[in-house]
Design brief:
By secondary structure, this protein is of the alpha+beta class. The protein contains 20 helices and 24 strands. A five-stranded antiparallel β-sheet has the order 1-2-3-9-6. Strands 12, 13, 15, 16 and 17 form a five-stranded antiparallel β-sheet that branches. Strands 20-22-21-23-24 form a five-stranded mixed β-sheet. The chain is globular, with a radius of gyration of 29 Å. The N and C termini lie far apart (70 Å).
Length: 717
């Protein structure tokens, strides 16, 4: 049994990790590395060509060896910032260099601001003539420091041809660091500077700032640029109990110009918390009265990571009720019904094995997310369904489950794979409950649940994927515990299952009916595969699945060598999918044009809002069942259709069925890493107001009304 369990887990690991880490067919768009003793650097692009607009998105990527750092635009008490000279470039009209949030380094009482390990500076470029190649030559001067400082200079090159632009492998890398550029009022960071002022005394002034965050704060810092000799030290931070608000007090010291009033000094404030940042220009004003502690400081309750883990636990529990889990309802029902009259000890072990399968799958997903994020690729909830090989493998597993429920096989075919597929199948289809089978029940339910989102799940996953490996592991473990709670409940009270009717002939009929539900699930998976690869290769996969089913059904009537054809069909199925040309990353042509929808163009939204229009954004995918439920029950509702079709309403739809770095970057800007995602923009909501994962007609109608011009006037009043 232990050998079977180990092979089962390795199969699931290969399917999930392999599909999640699969790199799409995107081409690379990067110049050669320039190496030195402290690290290396190069130019990268988000697309493999200039594009019709002639405005490619670029990045300056710097990788530093351990212990070395380079500097921000305002380096602090020492150092100098990165500078780039583009004068050697051809067909380049202009560039705009952006600075991701830096980190504070303190050494011997000196504060500097910069980056370590890796940084990508996003660059917005514009070609003088979009019809000609863009020949980039960048002379980069920068300083790297450890115990000593070493000035460096490098000449980087990158050539981009004219023509239609396709997303490159480096697109998500650029988007990831672009999301770290401090926002200037868009609201995407979730940070707010509620109040700032100069306090203290004339000889020992301080700058006091009250800040608030939509998610728990980690290590808030405030960077102050004044262009004068005033020095603002590291803040003393007083966090509220819920860690969503804080008071920062920065000591101010005078330079060679001597003491003078600090109030009235123009300043640029950059609020930083981890990889989030908010930039705000202001004139420092006196603090009329010392601020009290943050409003939430006296509030009771759990804060920080504990609150997120609570949301993850609740989100995982609610996920049991989401439509994505309905296809495996047959397995869940049999897992409960088949225990009627059994001993409580056996029932407890069975449900604990199912819970272990759920937790193991979530840990596997967490490991895949950590690996994908470390590789600089797009990471999100359910993105393995963007990979054709994963879809084909899942369709195969679903078919094997269905055949088992139909009673077509009880013995391995081949040995270990048949054992994997056999769940609760005993003589007459009524009995045996192997621990390996129950383990796979939980693992399989987890993998099919990932195309769904649920209340609280998006918040928890977004928090985890924007943090590091420990947070990802903790949040995904809590999600797994939430999804496993029904199994753990039965394990704690086995009588809930043993009091059910004993299995009998009635259960054979039930198994066949529930097997039909799994056949429907396989058909749905093939329909998503058809979107990825087209109907011709999908028809080939369907025929091979049919051949596998036929060989299993007729195996006793066929000569022994013919049984090997089943394994050959399985290999052929995977080879067809793996060898078929992969689709170009991005949404499908025409997928967004149904019923007045336009393709999502994030860059066009500010202009539409400036014209007084309301913009409704829907990011969806064919594999996202929650998206389809939202569409059928809410977006296609006559009231919502009438509102969306009204004057001054623009509908934009992003299709994430296939990998699309642009959509991944857009979601990351809102701290989201999964779908469904909907947002409303308008004069009263220029930065976009995201809606809950599960929509209601009332929510959509009220959001559209609140974002419009009348909502803007009401907000002003």
């Amino acid at each position: 049994m232990s050998v079977l369990l180990r092979r089962l887990f390795l199969l699931l690991a290969a399917l999930t990790l392999g599909s999640a880490c699969a790199v799409s067919g995107a081409r690379a768009a990067a110049g050669p590395w320039v190496d030195n003793d402290q690290g290396r650097l190069r130019l990268v692009a988000a697309a493999d060509a200039i594009g019709e607009t002639g405005e490619p998105k670029l990045g300056l990527q710097i990788e530093l060896k351990d212990g070395w750092k380079t500097y921000w635009r305002s380096p602090g008490d020492a150092g100098f910032p990165v500078s780039v000279d583009w004068s050697g470039s051809g067909n380049l009209a202009s560039t705009r260099f952006e600075w991701p949030v830096p980190h504070r380094f303190t050494l011997f009482g000196l504060d500097t601001f910069g980056y370590e390990k890796e940084v990508v500076f996003p660059i917005a470029a514009k070609a003088a003539d979009p019809g000609r190649p863009l020949a980039l030559t960048a002379k980069v001067d920068y300083l790297v420091c450890a115990e000593i400082c070493v000035p460096q200079s490098a000449t980087l090159t990158l050539d981009l041809p004219p023509g239609a632009a396709r997303p490159a492998r480096e697109a998500f890398l650029i988007d990831r660091f672009e999301a770290r550029v401090p926002e200037q009022g868009s609201g995407h960071s979730g940070l707010t500077l509620e109040r700032t002022g100069v306090g203290g005394t004339a000889t020992k002034p301080t700058l006091v700032a009250q800040v608030r965050s939509a998610v728990p704060l980690l290590a808030p810092d405030l960077l102050v640029e004044t262009g004068s000799d005033l020095r603002f030290g590291a803040p003393a931070v007083k966090l509220a109990a819920d860690k969503r608000s804080a008071t920062l007090t920065l000591p101010v010291t005078f330079g060679p110009q001597g003491e003078r009033p600090v109030a009235g000094t123009p300043a640029t404030l950059t609020l930083v918390d981890g990889n989030r940042g908010l930039e705000q220009a202001t004139t420092l004003q006196p603090l009329a009265a010392a601020p009290e502690g943050p409003a939430g400081e006296r509030a009771a309750g759990f804060g920080g990571l504990a609150a997120i883990l609570g949301l993850a636990l609740l989100g995982g529990l609610i996920l049991n009720l989401m439509p994505c889990v309905l296809p495996v309802l047959s397995i869940k029902l049999l897992s409960a019904i088949g225990h009627g009259g059994r001993e409580t000890g056996a029932v407890r072990l069975s449900f604990l094995a199912s819970a272990a399968g759920i937790l193991a799958s979530f840990l596997l997903l967490a490991g895949a997310a950590i690996a994908v994020k470390a590789a600089g690729l797009a990471v999100g909830w359910g993105i393995q369904f963007q990979q054709p090989l994963f879809l084909a493998a899942m369709a195969l597993l679903v078919v094997l489950f269905a055949l088992n429920l139909f009673g077509l096989f009880e013995i391995p075919l081949p040995g270990w794979l048949g054992g994997v597929a056999t769940i609760g199948h005993g003589p007459g289809g009524t009995g045996g409950h192997s621990l390996a089978g129950n383990f796979l029940t939980g693992a399989f339910a987890t993998l099919l649940a990932t195309p769904c989102s649920a209340p609280f799940l998006g918040t928890a996953v977004g928090f985890a994927l924007s943090r590091g490996a420990p947070e990802i592991l903790a949040v995904f473990t809590a999600l797994g515990l939430g999804l496993a709670l029904p199994y753990l409940l039965v394990a704690a009270a086995p009588g809930l299952a043993t009091r059910l009717p004993r299995p009998g002939r009635w259960m054979i009929t039930l198994r066949r009916l529930l097997g039909l539900a799994l056949v429907g699930t396989a058909a749905w998976l093939l329909s998503v595969l058809a979107v990825q690869l087209g109907w011709l290769p999908t028809a080939g996969v369907a025929l091979l699945l049919g051949a596998v089913a036929l060989l299993i059904a007729l195996r006793r009537r066929l000569p022994r060598p013919a049984a090997a054809l089943g394994g050959a069909a399985l290999v052929a199925l995977l080879l067809v999918v793996a060898a078929w040309p992969q689709p170009t990353p991005g949404g499908r042509a025409g997928a967004s044009h149904e019923a007045g929808w336009q393709p999502l163009d994030v860059a066009a939204i500010p202009a539409l809002v400036a014209e007084g229009k309301v913009v409704f954004v829907d990011v969806t995918a064919d594999w996202c069942i929650t998206c389809q439920v939202n569409k059928a029950l809410v977006l296609d509702d006559p009231q919502v259709q009438a509102a969306l079709g009204g004057k001054g309403i623009v509908r934009l739809r992003g299709d994430w069925t296939r990998p699309d770095p642009a959509i991944a970057g857009y979601l990351a800007g809102f701290g989201r890493y999964g779908i469904p995602f909907n947002a409303v923009y308008g004069p009263a909501a220029p930065n976009g107001k995201p809606l809950p994962e599960l929509l209601t007609v009332e929510q959509v109608l009220s959001a559209l009304a609140a974002a419009g011009p009348s909502g803007h006037l009401a907000a002003r009043d």
